[in-house]
Design a protein that fits this description.
By secondary structure, the chain is of the alpha+beta class. It is built from 3 helices and 7 strands, in the order E-E-E-E-H-E-E-E-H-H. Strand 2 (24-32) and strand 3 (39-40) form a beta hairpin. It is globular, with a radius of gyration of 15 Å. The model has no long low-confidence stretch (mean pLDDT 96).
C-alpha cells in the first residue's frame, strides 16, 4: 500500500522587534540575502521539534545578532499567497531588544527604522532605497503599528491574512 502524501503548509515565524534609540521606538528590518529580494521582518522556518516562540527567538538572533524578549503574539498569517515560494503559515510575535542589529545568516543587512517612518513605508510597500517589502510584511507592519497604538489585533474575517 502506497504512503499518503500530504501537501501541508510549512510553519514559519516572524518578529516585529522594537528597540528604543534616542527616546524613539525603532523597528528592525532586514534586507534579504536570498530571493525574493527586498526588505523583511526577521524570521524563518520552524525546525522539526521546535516550539514557535523558540524558533522566533532563534531566527531573530541568527539574522540580527539580537537577543529578543518576545512580548506578544500579534497574529497568525496564513494566506496561501503570502509567500510565492510555497504555502507558509507564520506566527508573528512582537519583541523587544537592546543594541544595534547586524545582518547575518540570511540577512545581508539589518537596520533600525523609526516607528514613525514605518506607516508610509508599509503603505507604499517599499523600504529604504525603494526596495520592496517582501512577502506580506507590509501588511504585518500595518497590523503591528495599529496594535502598538491601540492594542487591537487583526481579527478573523478582517481579510486575507
Amino acid at each position: 500500500m502506497a504512503a499518503t502524501t500530504y501537501k501541508n503548509p510549512t510553519p514559519t515565524v516572524d518578529a516585529v522587534i522594537r528597540i528604543e534609540k534616542d527616546g524613539v521606538d525603532h523597528v528592525v528590518l532586514i534586507r534579504r540575502n536570498n530571493p525574493p529580494a527586498g526588505w523583511a521582518l526577521p524570521g524563518g522556518f520552524v525546525d522539526e521539534g521546535e516550539r514557535m516562540d523558540l524558533a522566533c527567538a532563534r531566527e531573530a538572533l541568527e539574522e540580527t545578532g539580537l537577543h529578543v524578549i518576545l512580548e506578544d503574539l500579534l497574529y497568525i498569517y496564513s494566506d496561501p499567497r503570502r509567500d510565492q515560494r510555497k504555502h507558509t503559515v507564520s506566527a508573528v510575535f512582537t519583541a523587544r531588544a537592546i543594541g544595534e542589529p547586524v545582518g547575518q545568516d540570511d540577512a545581508a543587512e539589518a537596520i533600525l527604522v523609526p516607528i514613525t517612518d514605518l506607516g508610509p513605508m508599509a503603505d507604499q510597500g517599499a523600504g529604504p532605497g525603494g526596495a520592496p517589502i517582501v512577502f506580506d510584511h507590509a501588511l504585518i507592519l500595518r497590523d503591528a503599528l495599529r496594535f502598538f497604538a491601540t492594542g487591537a489585533r487583526p481579527r478573523p474575517g478582517d481579510g486575507p491574512r
